[in-house]
Structure formats: C-alpha cells, structure tokens
Design goal:
With about 110 residues, this protein is mainly α. Helix content is about 75%, strand content about 0%. It is elongated and about 50 Å long.
Length: about 110
C-alpha cells in the first residue's frame, strides 16, 4: 500500500468516526432540548467525554491526525479528514461549544 493510499484510508476512517461523534453531540443537545434523557444520552455523554480525554492525552490532536502526519507534510487543517478547511480548523471549538450547551441542558433537565 502506498503512502497516498494509507492517508486516504485514514481520512475515510477519521471522517466516519468524526460523523459518529457529531451525531452523539447532536443527540445530547436533542436530549437536553426535548427532555428525553435516556441511557443512550448518558452513553453519548460518556463517549464524548472519553474522546475529550483522548484528545487531551494526544496534545489536543486526534490520534488519527498523528498517524496521518506520517504520510503528509500538508499544513492544511483538513489534510487528514474529508471536511471543508474552515470546519476542520474550528471543529473543536464548534462542537465543544455545542456539547457543553447540550450537557448543560441535560444537567438542568435532570436536576
């Protein structure tokens, strides 16, 4: 397998995992808005917090980004994922904010 193919595989895997976490974040927000807080809400919260811990361990970079860096010297924010450049650049800010809003709503509704 060439480096190009390895990078392409990492980009696909990274994009799929990203989409799953975005869905989890939106589910937490939905749960907070609707008041439908289930076991799945808590599992989603736990998984997103777990992802935050992994990012912290890896210096606020996804482990897949670290892997992809071996196969590219690109400075673009989206070199390792199929996202628009602006979204890849502000991804953590956007989705952390949404998650915290959803988490706050879930906490408020649970209290």
């Amino acid at each position: 397998m060439t480096n190009h193919h390895r990078l392409l595989l990492i980009k696909w895997v990274h994009t799929v995992i990203w989409a799953i976490f975005v869905a989890l974040i939106f589910y937490v927000v939905y749960s907070g808005i609707s008041g439908r807080i289930t076991m799945w809400t808590w599992i989603g919260i736990g998984l997103v917090i777990g992802e935050g811990i992994v990012l912290a361990i890896f210096g606020m970079s996804c482990p897949l980004t670290v892997m992809a860096r071996r196969y590219s010297d690109s400075e673009r924010a989206n070199f390792d994922i199929f996202l628009p450049e602006w979204l890849a650049r502000y991804n953590k800010v956007i989705f952390t904010t949404l998650f915290l809003i959803g988490l706050g709503m879930v906490a408020w509704r649970s209290w």
